[in-house]
Amino acid sequence: MWTDESSQSRQLHTRARRVMPGGSTRAAVWMDPYPPYVVRGEGARVYDVDGRAYLDLANNLGVLIHGHAQPSVVAAVQAQAALGSCFAMPTPTEVELAELLCARVPGFERIRFINTGSEAVALAIKTARAFTGRHKIVKLEGVYHGSYDFAEISNYSTPENWGNTPRSVATVPATPPGVLDSVLVIPANDSAQAREVLLANADDIAAVLVDPVPPRCGMQPLVDEFVTSLRALTRELGMLLIYDEVIAFRFGYAGSQGRFGGEPDLTALGKIIGGGYPVGAVAGRADIMEATASQVSSSGTFTANPITMVAGLASMQLLQQESFSALDALGERMRAGCNQIIADKGAAMQVLGTGSISSIYFHQRPVTDYRSYYKRPTEATLTAAFHRAMVERGVILAPTATCFASTVLTAADEAEFLEAFAHSIDAVME
Ligand SMILES: Cc1ncc(COP(=O)(O)O)c(C=O)c1O
């Protein structure tokens, strides 16, 4: 086990604590007392430094839609590495990946690459500000959009500070008041509240930023009526609608907007479009992007680097229409299997999700927004214990007890997951 006294993971963690705060450089994948340290991944498996294999359903939090070291992606990266890893000039592959993405999604008339999802969200917001000449944004309470100061407001609101109607709550100590004042927070799926906030600040709002399938509102698509009324009102008031599809792009061949509708002006992308390498992008209306490109600088050193571009192209070319129906069916089967086990055990749990993403909850209330999603202390403890029990059984989930299914999972992998799921519920209930 990776937590054993003599394990190499333990030794690495001891060394890490001497050079990294808390021994960790990436909060989103942390677990107590420390995670297994990994040396290799292949298909649906990862292998830790002590040689133990795990079924990986975290897939780097949704990045690896084809699992690890997909052969075409590896071949493309190896070939490009031998030709050079980055240049101060554009490459043919960035044009090809841009063409592929714009051809798939009707609303993607222009695209700009960048290096992470956080930067993509930042670029979309800055683009909206430049285009509208307004400075405020509206976001949904608790919804995660990465680490741009403005986008991370209210990420971790709690019952102690969230207020009757959502307040702008700082995520990081000493967030400048100007940032807090520039971000208005609304609950998901509440059109009346959205209308009130948008009308009261109509002259200052550049954009409304939403994740169309927000994980922290139950990983369900936003209600149609909410999206339709937001779209109509933003148009009427001259504000842009920004979709964050950094995760949600994996829900369909034309992304989440292609599957669930919605006509955003701009879309932030990341994760799957880089084939396992650092990536972000903003895509959207030609008039907006052409008008603002020279005003909103986007010149990151590694932007559109050819390694990411060839990996992204190889990975996206493998994702055809039928890949998404297969991923949907797989996700449905996994959720149905889990919910059957929960029913058989009479556990106060549920598994919710959309397409290839499923999340495990230690309660049975409906989840429609951040406040109904918000984990009570016992639920948070049970989630962490369950996550650890799954790792002990050799299955990696995201620490929020979320699975990101990939195209390489076999029926045997599904069965292995369900068995570990059943055992881990027993372990936690004990
Ligand atoms: C919806 C969403 N937006 C933005 C981001 C930030 O992306 P990155 O971690 O690449 O900066 C994430 C990351 O998980 C995300 O889930």
Task: Give a summary of the structure in a few sentences.
This protein is of the alpha/beta class and 430 residues long.
Overview of this structure, please?
Helix content is 41%, strand content 14%. The chain has 430 residues and is of the alpha/beta class. The strands form three sheets. It has a seven-stranded mixed β-sheet with strand order 4-10-9-8-7-5-6, with helices on both faces. A hairpin with a 2-residue loop joins strand 1 and strand 2 (45-48). Helix 12 runs parallel beside helix 15 (411-429) and helix 14 (377-392) crosses helix 15 (411-429). The radius of gyration is 21 Å and the shape is globular. It starts with 7 loop residues before the first helix and ends with a helix. The model has no long low-confidence stretch (mean pLDDT 97). It binds pyridoxal-5'-phosphate. The site of pyridoxal-5'-phosphate (PLP) has 13 residues, from helix 5.
- Total number of beta strands: 14
Radius of gyration: 21 Å
Share of residues in strands: 5-15%
Instruction: Show unreliable segments.
Output: none
Look at the structure and give the mean pLDDT.
97
**Helices and strands: which structural class?**
alpha/beta
Largest sheet: 7 strands, mixed
What hetero molecules are in the model?
pyridoxal-5'-phosphate
Helix content estimate: 40-55%
Q: Kindly, what is the distance between the CA atoms of the first and last residues, rounded to a whole number of angstroms? A: 20 Å
| Biggest sheet: strand arrangement | 4-10-9-8-7-5-6
* Element-by-element helix/strand order: HEEEHHHEHEHEHEHEHEEHHHEEHHEEH
List the total number of helices.
Answer: 15
Q: What is the approximate shape?
A: globular
